[in-house]
Amino acid sequence: MGLGIGGDYPLSAVITAEFAPRKHRDRMLATVFFMQPIGAFMANVVAIATVAAFRNSLPQGSTTTNCIGAIPPAFAILIRWWIPESPRYTLEVEKDPATAQRDVDVYYRPSAGILKPVNRTNGPDTAATALSPGSTISTQAAFTFGEPEPMEMKEFTLTEPALTVTPMTSRKTVRKETWPEFWIGFHSFMIQEGNWTDLAGTSFAWMNLDFAFYFLGVNSPRVLSQIWNAVNEKGPLYYIFMEDGHRAMIAVSIGAILGGLLFIKLAGFRWHLQVSGFWILAALFVVVGVSYVLLLHTRYFAAVIVLYSICSLFFNFGPNSSTFVIAAEVFPTKYRCTCHGLSAAAGKFGSIIAQIFLAYAKFGSPGHGVNDSDSNWLGWVLLVFAAFMASGAIITKLWVPNPCNILGQSRSLEDLGLGKAARKRMEKDERDTWNSLVPGSPNVL
């Protein structure tokens, strides 16, 4: 599971980001992540249906559930064999502009009016002869790939020669980067150029989020039992399993699906949704935690369930979706998948801490834990989580890059991949231009 999810998170995000048009990149990434709450909902549906079908032989039912659970991963593996590399990856990582140009020609045909044909009457293949010895100028065959405006070959500056140029009559030789060279470049980009704060921001924001998300989510039936005030529930296993499934669907899945739909609609504001989402979750955890402590064993305790469902909504209408989306946009193509994977791994590390916290954290003078009946333990835990959500908002504000310009339009992946210093210059130029065109106007976010 760890290897599979660890590979699928960055691949799904990065492939989508690199193939998507700039105008629709945010919504396409949000739609990909929307499959998470859909998958969680379907898992609950399958579990409930299997338990109902095998109520008289539950061990056999659990085996059936596990077998059904193997079908989606097998299907995903098959699809992975058919998904091509993006032209951006082929150009920047594989260092093969000729293949990148051919891929662009396949995906966006000139006859459709999307790709402006490249003039090749004055010499051999432009992409194949992009570099001369000692030159660092190459053709940007795929860098505008997926953009809504007409595409054409553009020049950009490489940090190092991409090709070993051979005579025009022979086929070019592609020299791929070695692992030591990759890590030297990665260290230079992160440490020497000061872009480590971008990676730290996406990683720590994701870790703070998942610390609470996986603690309170469908992976923690004990917490859901606490929310429903049914820790020491007695009865047949069939009844307990069915109740666990229904609780997860009501308290988690429905809110998560609604939140995911809202995020897709407003994905253009993803950075602001992450900041405000963290603050809203912090406030909600305070409200839910205090309500849990005060309303436990009262007739008003149902309000806690409603508030908990609202928390699930704002998880997906905020940082649970935005952390996935933003981390796929703000790094260079060469390091995009690595940085997204590191950010996601930090999130899963937060989920591990959450499970340890769930097992060992005690509150109150007798030292109550999650399995203790008549305990307001969860209320105090939610108050602790409020602090983590507030820190997530602060980290996002200080360190997480905004993938949009000051007018809220998505930047190109190439502009974002230039790093923090270039991004700051672009933001300054945009503000100066705005102030010169609209003097005396309020500042643009």
From TrEMBL:
GO terms for molecular function: transmembrane transporter activity. The chain crosses the membrane at residues 29-51, 248-271, 277-295, 300-317, 377-400. Residues 1-404 form the Major facilitator superfamily (MFS) profile domain. It is a multi-pass membrane protein. InterPro entries: MFS_dom, MFS_sugar_transport-like, MFS_trans_sf. Pfam families: Sugar_tr. It is found in: Membrane. Keywords: Membrane, Transmembrane, Transmembrane helix. GO terms for cellular component: membrane. This is Major facilitator superfamily (MFS) profile domain-containing protein. The lineage of its organism: Eukaryota, Fungi, Dikarya, Ascomycota, Pezizomycotina.
